[in-house]
Write a structure and sequence with these properties.
The protein has 82 residues and is mainly alpha-helical. Helices cover 84% and strands 0% of the residues. The longest helix is centred in the C-terminal third of the chain and has 47 residues, at 35-81. The protein starts with 11 loop residues before the first helix and ends with a helix.
Length: 82
């Protein structure tokens, strides 16, 4: 029978977390320390700005449709009430 009070030593999660942290730190250092990183950040910034504009337009279009449906329902309700 397994002893429930004995703590198992599992360092694989710690090793994985350190590896992921090191990779992330390397990527951040690359983006801020090199000329290529600077140009990549600029491109990434432009893409993010375009995505933000596109999503804003999409949400405004969806919101307009929702408002129009709500208005139509209110008009129908007024007609029914007479």
């Amino acid at each position: 029978m397994k002893n429930l009070f004995v703590k198992e030593n599992d360092n694989s999660l710690v090793i994985a977390a350190v590896a992921v942290g090191a990779i992330a730190a390397g990527a951040i250092a690359y983006l801020y320390a090199t000329k290529k990183g600077y140009s990549f950040r600029k491109k990434l910034s432009n893409v993010a700005e375009e995505a933000k504009d596109h999503s804003t337009d999409y949400l405004e279009k969806k919101n307009t449709k929702r408002k129009r449906k709500t208005t139509d329902l209110h008009e129908i309700e007024q007609i029914v009430k007479g």
